[in-house]
């Protein structure tokens, strides 16, 4: 085995571990830019993972499963949005409760049912896959991975270039001012949460029907929290957020691949690395100046 | 100046109590909405059971049997209630000061970790050991939560986020401790397999209890929690410190303006909330009947649930007592669900739905009231305006 | 005013551009607007005059679609229209410059300008439009600049450009001058006149300042407690009548003029603390001494080397346009901000500003600028708010004694005429004037040597303003050194014996009231040392 | 001052010899209806996911099948946190079970409940690796992981030798004692056949995180590993499927899955707690279960644990059988072999 192959293996593995995070991070990033701090992303991913496998098992189509996963993410985003940006229940409370609810519900349902395993098809791009080093990692993947090629630029464009995104940013920074300008603040936040739900759902569904092919209890195992850590680590910039996801994904890949290369590292340290890095990022680069000013703050017309 | 109410009522405190019992229209609506919410939550849960082939009635029966049917069941319920209440009381303190700590799960773990270390390594004997354990747990978890406060103070790190992230750090810290022989991993006997857990605590490091199991046995942790709830309730409502805390929570700027050391007080509130969570960790570890070992799973989601208890109790320490009991009932009752074929995860679903049922009503009634006003406005728009006499300009 | 313009004003075009009929809006028990009729014509500046809380902003928010009315009709030309959102208002040609909050600071000028539009974003076109509008009206601005780097005056320009770009037939400005220097106000009125005269638009100018209304408008409508109580051509009426209509009783333009936003016709009576001096500090040792205070926020010097002395028994007015460091000075003297350098001495002793509560302990009382955010705790009771700074006096062994607290609160409520249903009423449900009295009562009850009053009359009605003036004068005559921080020229002229002018965080001059004229102050405010 | 960790270790169990243990014991009256309430209820607690299609599920499935055939009732509860074991066991006793069966030795913390009055009339079945103290109330069922894992390694070694491979892989969850010792014995087994063989052990951190297990498996496959032991829980199938897809041989963690088609396994390593439990249940049904005894399951002596090749050549099968018999007869000392070759 050559060093190039080793790198190629780790890269592949890192990409696969990054993809679910990256999908969800695109969503969480957009929601946070709109000021909607949403810790229910774990619930979205887990619910979607369950829904996608259940559907794939029932219909025999992994792609349908993927779609249903997205729908479930949307549903959770819709519920979260309405609870915290229509009824104005504290968004952290809503997030905690949804996480607990979805974990309980999926664990319950998986106990009383059994599903077959299903996976979406793999795409292998001719010629490109033969590029040394990066060819195999990048061009032999389950097809939803390539959705990232659309979703990342689209998310960036939506936030930075579209009118909707301009309004989202306004809502995330100074909701009162946005309101008098005629922007429906809570509506925009609910919409942002829908986008977040759809993408986190896609991430979770990809994990289930793309990556693993089956569902087991608490299968997202805290990936939603890693996504939140990535957005913080990325200081609310899309590029750096995705970099964070890639970093966390690669770190995991290294941890899982290094023993095969004859090296071992302290596993607790590696598991905790994303959280420590996010905390460090916040400590070192005074992120408070980059954080959307109204992040996590409810909006009610008339209050200052 | 109008005549104030206290001038009429010599006993101002009495009149305040009276005012509490006289429900305003909002309180009445809230009660109804909460009742409706609870019913909806229970109906949804029953529907879930029925849809998956279980029997809702049998599940309720099992929950009842497992939690309050007899002394034994009560003992288990109270065993869970104690740490839940401790966490919730702490959460009340920080929430009162306007700081939202959601890292209790980690703080429980840190408390248990340090209590275990003291209990197993400190060559102290007798009841002193227990005291040392509880104190260390409170101090360590308080300091752990205090870290978040420092990060906020000096680098502006959002407290909700940092307490959340620190939870995962705490989990790995405990995992490291119980996997590391020179730290807390259990001793190897012969060539037996060792588990990721500590040795059991010596007997002197366990909490006492009242009553003889299998009859009702009240664990010492519950007493600790009840005392904590009462003390916190009194301190918050009656002392100068509590006055400042409330002021800080309601308007930090005004508090600072009034000479409150906001960072110190907010940090103290966060640390106190962490300390209570840490105590909960020590209580879990030193439970009079229990495993008495530090294990990675020792927190058993008590931290998360305790936070929910405080939310349902709307951050009132005394109200947290019955709520913690309810959550304890659900936990101990959940142990009986298996017999009905219903997965115990049902309890988590019920809990989450109940929390929503308690948290949503005040908000929902407020919104409905606002909507009603809005609806009236919408209808009025269709009505032609009374034509005022033409303004000659 | 040319003959031509005068002629046009006297014969307004027949159909109003916009007409409101029987508009009503209530917030619970508070009726903000009640059967309001208003007609605005093209080619005129229409003044909307009223005390604080009269319902002016509410009326305009209804016009803008931000607030839904309970009853009434809005006629645009000859058609009744429904305005459900600001976008619909824009479509009808109504634009508004808001009193508060309407620019998003981290966004650039052009982004702010197009916020609220619909359709695709075209940056180049937007920037071109900004440049075009700014050239046409003489409002220079860089479309690519971030708003948080702009001064108050520049932000006002952005607001104007944002409105004018949409080519409104009716332009509403809600108290636009409070953040502007006199020169900037003059510039604004020039633009408005241009908009009205050459482009035949309608302008609604909202103000509670008599002087501004009489100087800048063609026609005036007066609101009192939500009702239209008077309307007239501006030329056909005078300050005296407008004041009477606005307040609802006969008022003298002497003593009360300042409360109405007019320069006093005659100065304060001799012998009062506000007696004009000669601009040099009185001989007595200063009770408050600020030494070279410098504060830097985000690399910007908000206060630089600010020094001031205030003697016992005097009222020193610190006058300047909003956003020149007064707020920071107020925060500093509230203990919310610690200066980079400099010192504060009270009664000759330096105060350690790092210690919370040190200023209060040293004998400094303060009526903060924004009472809701830092003066009171809205959800605590009147009694609690009254004792919150002197908790030690009502505490025994760490426990707050309710008996002592109520006794103290009752005393203050009586002394300061605070109208409240009970001691347990949350301060939130008091009226603005009474909230301010709570703050003042609390601060004066500690027997301070120094009282800082920052914008003490913001948001109060004339009666409450007069009461506040009286109490500040009383405090001064009782030997307290009063520092009055105000953006209202009339207020400082009426109250202070000396006036210090602050501009860009530095003191540009100190004048006695005798030597202070609007022109000299105006130059100082503009940063030109006199 | 500080005490050392070992000073606080429970002063337990100078391991008595097995013979003495099996001698004593009591047979509770009325077996199988120990509590005499007219029905037989078996309560099963498992620390793992009882739908993992493997180790943990086998225990519950066995119990369920047996109970159903006898007309008994079964109460099963999975995913029991070790810290909750004690309360979970008590809950079973309160529900009047006749037998409490622990699915794995991780739940040993539940054992003190057997001494409590609530559990007065219950039989206890406890699987054990040899550090659980025998009490008069419990039946211990012990197998030595060394033996089955050594045999598993031996079987894997046979496959590798015939293909001329030297690289084997072991993918498991957390890096804890039971996984590290298993890996060690597996490695020793392989080296008995292929002395120069290497074993790569990867700890994914979680027995149930399929995604990570797959990545660990993939990394090993890329390194040219030809036999992989997915020593996992819920993540077993995901890992095995990946191995199948790459033509890498696999072993089962505990159950006989030679018949399985998706994924397929090449070696079944049988140390399923269900199989041991079934024997106890049979005794229980026949009213012969002796509490206070320990049943030690020996490779080559008892039917379980054992190892079988799913598609072995007769030659390979024979070699494996010989090896197992040698362990059973004491000709090979597994402990010593693991010591010698495992590190
Ligand atoms: N959102 C609201 N909820 C309740 N009451 C309100 C609200 N907005 C305004 N009010 C009340 O309506 C009345 C009119 O307010 P409005 O802001 O229109 O006054 P204004 O004339 O603009 O005063 P100012 O000169 O201070 O700007 C006040 O009594 C105010 O308290
Ligand atoms: N946000 C609010 N919540 C509850 N009540 C309010 C609110 N705003 C105003 N009010 C009520 O509306 C009334 C009018 O408020 P406003 O501030 O206009 O007082 P005001 O009539 O100008 O009196 P003052 O002369 O004391 O300022 C107050 O008495 C108060 O009870
Ligand atoms: Mg207004
Ligand atoms: Mg029985």
TrEMBL record, chain A:
<keyword id="KW-0472">Membrane</keyword>
<feature type="transmembrane region" description="Helical">
    <location>
        <begin position="192"/>
        <end position="209"/>
    </location>
</feature>
<feature type="transmembrane region" description="Helical">
    <location>
        <begin position="91"/>
        <end position="110"/>
    </location>
</feature>
<feature type="transmembrane region" description="Helical">
    <location>
        <begin position="269"/>
        <end position="287"/>
    </location>
</feature>
<feature type="transmembrane region" description="Helical">
    <location>
        <begin position="221"/>
        <end position="238"/>
    </location>
</feature>
<feature type="transmembrane region" description="Helical">
    <location>
        <begin position="245"/>
        <end position="263"/>
    </location>
</feature>
<keyword id="KW-0812">Transmembrane</keyword>
<feature type="transmembrane region" description="Helical">
    <location>
        <begin position="53"/>
        <end position="79"/>
    </location>
</feature>
<protein>
    <submittedName>
        <fullName>ABC transporter permease</fullName>
    </submittedName>
</protein>
<dbReference type="Pfam" id="PF02653">
    <property type="entry name" value="BPD_transp_2"/>
</dbReference>
<keyword id="KW-1003">Cell membrane</keyword>
<dbReference type="InterPro" id="IPR001851">
    <property type="entry name" value="ABC_transp_permease"/>
</dbReference>
<feature type="transmembrane region" description="Helical">
    <location>
        <begin position="143"/>
        <end position="159"/>
    </location>
</feature>
<keyword id="KW-1133">Transmembrane helix</keyword>
Automatic annotation (TrEMBL), chain B:
<feature type="transmembrane region" description="Helical">
    <location>
        <begin position="106"/>
        <end position="123"/>
    </location>
</feature>
<feature type="transmembrane region" description="Helical">
    <location>
        <begin position="73"/>
        <end position="94"/>
    </location>
</feature>
<keyword id="KW-0812">Transmembrane</keyword>
<feature type="transmembrane region" description="Helical">
    <location>
        <begin position="222"/>
        <end position="241"/>
    </location>
</feature>
<feature type="transmembrane region" description="Helical">
    <location>
        <begin position="262"/>
        <end position="287"/>
    </location>
</feature>
<keyword id="KW-0472">Membrane</keyword>
<feature type="transmembrane region" description="Helical">
    <location>
        <begin position="319"/>
        <end position="339"/>
    </location>
</feature>
<keyword id="KW-1133">Transmembrane helix</keyword>
<dbReference type="Pfam" id="PF02653">
    <property type="entry name" value="BPD_transp_2"/>
</dbReference>
<feature type="transmembrane region" description="Helical">
    <location>
        <begin position="159"/>
        <end position="178"/>
    </location>
</feature>
<feature type="transmembrane region" description="Helical">
    <location>
        <begin position="129"/>
        <end position="147"/>
    </location>
</feature>
<keyword id="KW-1003">Cell membrane</keyword>
<feature type="transmembrane region" description="Helical">
    <location>
        <begin position="345"/>
        <end position="368"/>
    </location>
</feature>
<dbReference type="InterPro" id="IPR001851">
    <property type="entry name" value="ABC_transp_permease"/>
</dbReference>
<feature type="transmembrane region" description="Helical">
    <location>
        <begin position="293"/>
        <end position="312"/>
    </location>
</feature>
UniProtKB/TrEMBL annotation, chain C:
<feature type="domain" description="ABC transporter">
    <location>
        <begin position="18"/>
        <end position="250"/>
    </location>
</feature>
<dbReference type="Pfam" id="PF00005">
    <property type="entry name" value="ABC_tran"/>
</dbReference>
<dbReference type="InterPro" id="IPR003593">
    <property type="entry name" value="AAA+_ATPase"/>
</dbReference>
<dbReference type="InterPro" id="IPR027417">
    <property type="entry name" value="P-loop_NTPase"/>
</dbReference>
<keyword id="KW-0547">Nucleotide-binding</keyword>
<dbReference type="InterPro" id="IPR017871">
    <property type="entry name" value="ABC_transporter-like_CS"/>
</dbReference>
<dbReference type="InterPro" id="IPR003439">
    <property type="entry name" value="ABC_transporter-like_ATP-bd"/>
</dbReference>
<protein>
    <submittedName>
        <fullName>Guanosine ABC transporter ATP-binding protein NupO</fullName>
    </submittedName>
</protein>
<feature type="domain" description="ABC transporter">
    <location>
        <begin position="288"/>
        <end position="529"/>
    </location>
</feature>
<keyword id="KW-0067">ATP-binding</keyword>
<dbReference type="InterPro" id="IPR050107">
    <property type="entry name" value="ABC_carbohydrate_import_ATPase"/>
</dbReference>
<dbReference type="GO" id="GO:0005524">
    <property type="term" value="F:ATP binding"/>
</dbReference>
């Amino acid at each position: 085995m050559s060093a190039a192959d080793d790198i190629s293996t780790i890269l592949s593995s890192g990409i696969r571990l990054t993809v679910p995070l990256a999908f969800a991070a695109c969503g969480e990033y957009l929601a946070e830019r709109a000021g909607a701090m949403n810790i229910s992303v774990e619930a979205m991913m887990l619910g979607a993972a369950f829904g996608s496998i259940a559907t794939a098992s029932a219909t025999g189509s992994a792609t349908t499963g993927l779609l249903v996963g997205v729908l479930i993410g949307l549903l959770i985003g819709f519920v979260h949005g309405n609870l915290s940006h229509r009824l104005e229940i504290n968004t952290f409370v809503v997030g905690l409760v949804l996480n607990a609810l979805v974990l309980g519900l999926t664990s319950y349902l998986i106990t009383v049912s059994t599903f077959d395993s299903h996976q979406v098809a793999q795409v292998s791009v001719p010629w490109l896959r033969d590029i040394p080093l990066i060819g195999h990692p990048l061009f032999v993947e389950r097809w939803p991975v390539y959705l990232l090629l659309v979703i990342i630029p689209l998310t960036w464009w939506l936030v930075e270039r579209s009118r909707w995104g301009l309004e989202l940013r306004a809502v995330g920074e100074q909701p009162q001012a946005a309101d008098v300008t005629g922007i429906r603040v809570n509506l925009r936040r609910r919409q942002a949460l829908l986008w977040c739900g759809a993408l986190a759902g896609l991430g979770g569904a990809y994990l289930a029907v793309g990556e693993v092919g089956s569902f087991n209890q608490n299968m997202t195992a805290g990936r939603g929290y890693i996504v939140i850590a990535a957005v913080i680590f990325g200081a609310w910039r899309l590029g750096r957020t995705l970099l964070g996801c890639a970093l966390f994904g690669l770190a995991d890949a290294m941890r899982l691949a290094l023993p095969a290369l004859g090296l071992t590292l302290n596993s607790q340290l590696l598991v905790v690395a994303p959280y420590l890095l996010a905390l460090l990022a916040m400590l070192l680069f005074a992120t408070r100046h980059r954080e959307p000013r109204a992040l996590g703050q409810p909006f009610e017309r008339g209050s200052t | 100046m109008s005549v104030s109410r206290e001038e009429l009522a010599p006993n101002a405190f009495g009149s305040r109590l009276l005012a509490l019992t006289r429900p305003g229209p909002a309180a009445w609506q809230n009660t109804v909405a909460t009742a409706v919410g609870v019913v909806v939550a229970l109906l949804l849960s029953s529907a879930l059971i029925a849809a998956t082939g279980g029997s809702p009635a049998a599940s309720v029966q099992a929950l009842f049997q497992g939690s309050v049917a007899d002394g034994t069941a009560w003992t288990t319920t109270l065993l869970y209630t104690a740490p839940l209440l401790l966490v919730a009381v702490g959460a009340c303190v920080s929430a009162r000061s306007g700081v939202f700590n959601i890292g209790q799960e980690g703080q429980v773990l840190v408390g248990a970790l340090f209590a275990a270390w003291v209990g197993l390594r400190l060559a102290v004997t007798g009841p002193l050991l227990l005291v040392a354990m509880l104190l260390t747990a409170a101090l360590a978890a308080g300091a752990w939560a205090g870290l978040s406060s420092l990060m906020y103070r000096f680098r502006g790190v959002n407290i909700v986020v940092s307490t959340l992230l620190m939870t995962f750090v705490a989990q790995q810290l405990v995992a490291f401790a119980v996997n590391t022989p020179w730290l807390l991993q259990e001793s190897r006997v012969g060539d037996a397999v060792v588990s990721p857990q500590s040795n059991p605590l010596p007997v002197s490091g366990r909490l006492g209890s009242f009553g003889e199991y299998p009859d009702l046995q009240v664990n010492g942790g519950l007493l600790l929690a009840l005392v904590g709830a009462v003390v916190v309730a009194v301190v918050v409502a009656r002392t100068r410190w509590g006055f400042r805390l409330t002021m800080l929570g309601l308007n930090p700027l005004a508090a600072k303006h009034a000479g409150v050391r906001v960072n110190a007080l907010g940090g103290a509130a966060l640390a106190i909330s962490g300390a209570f969570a840490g105590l909960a960790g020590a209580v879990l570890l030193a439970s009079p009947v229990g495993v008495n070992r530090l294990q990675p799973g020792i927190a058993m989601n008590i931290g998360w649930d305790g936070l929910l208890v405080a939310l349902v109790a709307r951050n009132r320490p005394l109200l947290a007592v019955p709520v913690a009991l309810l959550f304890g009932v659900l936990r101990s009752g959940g142990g009986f669900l298996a017999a009905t074929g219903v997965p115990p995860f049902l309890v988590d679903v019920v809990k989450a739905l109940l929390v929503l049922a308690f948290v949503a009503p005040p908000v929902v009634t407020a919104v409905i009231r606002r909507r009603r006003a809005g609806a009236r406005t919408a209808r009025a728009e269709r009505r032609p305006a009374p034509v005022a006499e033409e303004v000659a300009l | 005013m040319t003959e031509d313009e005068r002629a046009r004003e006297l014969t307004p075009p027949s159909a109003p551009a916009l007409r409101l009929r029987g508009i009503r809006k209530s917030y619970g028990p508070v009726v903000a607007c009640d059967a309001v009729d208003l007609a605005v014509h093209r080619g005129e500046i229409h003044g909307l005059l009223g005390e604080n809380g009269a319902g002016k902003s509410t009326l305009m928010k209804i016009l803008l679609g931000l607030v839904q009315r309970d009853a009434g009709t809005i006629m645009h030309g000859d058609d009744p229209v429904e305005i459900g959102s600001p976008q619909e208002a824009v479509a009808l040609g109504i634009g508004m410059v808001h009193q508060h909050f309407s620019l998003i600071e981290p966004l650039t000028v052009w982004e702010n300008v197009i916020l609220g539009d619909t359709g695709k974003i075209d940056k180049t076109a937007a920037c071109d439009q900004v440049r075009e509008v700014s050239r046409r009206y003489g409002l220079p601005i860089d479309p690519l600049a971030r708003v948080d780097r702009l001064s108050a005056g520049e932000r006002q320009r952005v607001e104007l450009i944002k409105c004018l770009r949409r080519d409104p037939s009716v332009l509403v400005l809600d108290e636009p001058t409070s953040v502007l220097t006199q020169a900037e106000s003059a510039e604004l009125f020039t633009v408005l006149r241009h908009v009205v005269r050459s482009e035949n638009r309608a302008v609604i100018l909202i103000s509670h300042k008599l002087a501004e209304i009489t100087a800048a408008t063609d026609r005036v409508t007066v609101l009192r407690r939500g009702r239209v109580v008077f309307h007239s051509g501006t030329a056909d009426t005078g300050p005296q009548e407008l004041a009477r209509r606005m307040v609802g009783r006969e008022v003298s333009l002497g003593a009360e003029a300042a409360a109405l936003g007019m320069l006093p016709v005659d100065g304060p009576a001799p012998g009062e603390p506000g007696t004009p001096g000669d601009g040099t500090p009185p001989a007595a040792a200063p009770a408050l001494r600020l030494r070279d205070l410098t504060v830097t926020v985000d690399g910007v010097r908000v206060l630089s080397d600010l020094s001031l002395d205030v003697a016992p028994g005097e009222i020193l007015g610190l006058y300047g346009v909003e956003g020149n460091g007064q707020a920071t000075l107020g925060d500093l003297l509230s203990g919310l901000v610690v200066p980079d350098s400099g010192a504060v001495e009270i009664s000759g002793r330096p105060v350690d500003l790092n210690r919370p509560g040190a200023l209060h302990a040293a004998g400094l009382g303060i009526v903060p600028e924004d009472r809701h955010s830092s003066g009171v705790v809205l959800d605590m009771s009147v009694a609690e708010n009254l004792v919150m700074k002197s908790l030690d006096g009502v505490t025994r062994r760490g426990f707050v004694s309710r008996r002592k607290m109520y006794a103290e609160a009752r005393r203050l409520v009586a002394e300061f005429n605070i109208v409240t249903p009970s001691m347990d009423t949350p301060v939130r449900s008091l009226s603005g004037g009474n909230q301010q009295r709570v703050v003042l009562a609390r601060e004066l009850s500690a027997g301070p040597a120094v009282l800082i009053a920052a914008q003490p009359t913001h948001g109060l009605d004339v009666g409450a303003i007069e009461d506040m003036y009286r109490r500040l004068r009383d405090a001064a005559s009782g030997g307290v050194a009063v520092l009055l921080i105000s953006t209202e020229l009339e207020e400082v002229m009426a109250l202070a014996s000396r006036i210090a002018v602050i501009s860009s965080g530095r003191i540009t001059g100190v004048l006695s009231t005798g030597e202070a004229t609007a022109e000299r102050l105006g130059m100082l405010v503009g940063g030109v040392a006199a | 001052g500080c005490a050392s960790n070992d000073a606080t270790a429970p002063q337990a169990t100078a391991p008595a010899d097995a013979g003495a243990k099996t001698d004593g014991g009591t047979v509770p009256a009325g077996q199988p209806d120990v509590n005499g309430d007219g029905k037989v209820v078996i309560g099963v607690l498992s620390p793992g996911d009882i739908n993992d299609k493997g180790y943990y599920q086998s225990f519950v499935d066995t119990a369920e099948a047996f109970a159903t055939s006898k007309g008994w009732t079964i109460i099963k509860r999975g995913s029991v946190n070790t810290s909750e074991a004690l309360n979970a066991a008590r809950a079973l006793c309160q529900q009047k079970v006749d037998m409490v069966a622990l699915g794995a030795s991780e739940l040993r913390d539940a054992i003190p409940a057997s001494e409590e009055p609530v559990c007065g009339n219950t039989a206890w079945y406890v699987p054990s690796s040899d550090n659980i103290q025998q009490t008069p109330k419990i039946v211990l069922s012990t197998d030595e992981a060394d033996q089955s894992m050594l045999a598993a390694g031996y079987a894997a070694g046979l496959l590798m030798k015939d293909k001329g491979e030297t690289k084997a892989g072991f993918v498991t969850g957390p890096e804890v004692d039971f996984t590290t010792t298993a890996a060690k014995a597996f490695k020793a087994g392989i080296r008995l056949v292929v002395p120069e063989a290497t074993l790569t052990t990867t700890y994914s951190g979680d027995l149930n995180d399929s995604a990570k297990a797959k990545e660990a498996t993939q990394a090993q496959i890329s390194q040219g590993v030809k036999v992989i032991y997915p020593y996992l829980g819920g993540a077993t199938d995901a890992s095995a499927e990946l191995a199948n897809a790459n033509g890498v041989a696999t072993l089962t963690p505990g159950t006989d899955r030679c018949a399985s088609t998706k994924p397929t396994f090449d070696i079944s390593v049988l140390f399923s707690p269900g199989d041991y439990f079934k024997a106890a249940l049979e005794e229980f049904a026949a009213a012969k279960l002796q509490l206070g005894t320990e049943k030690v399951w020996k490779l080559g002596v008892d039917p379980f644990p054992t190892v079988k090749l799913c598609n072995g050549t007769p030659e390979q099968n024979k070699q494996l059988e010989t090896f197992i018999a040698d362990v059973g007869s004491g000709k090979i000392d597994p402990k010593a072999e693991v010591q010698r070759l495992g590190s």
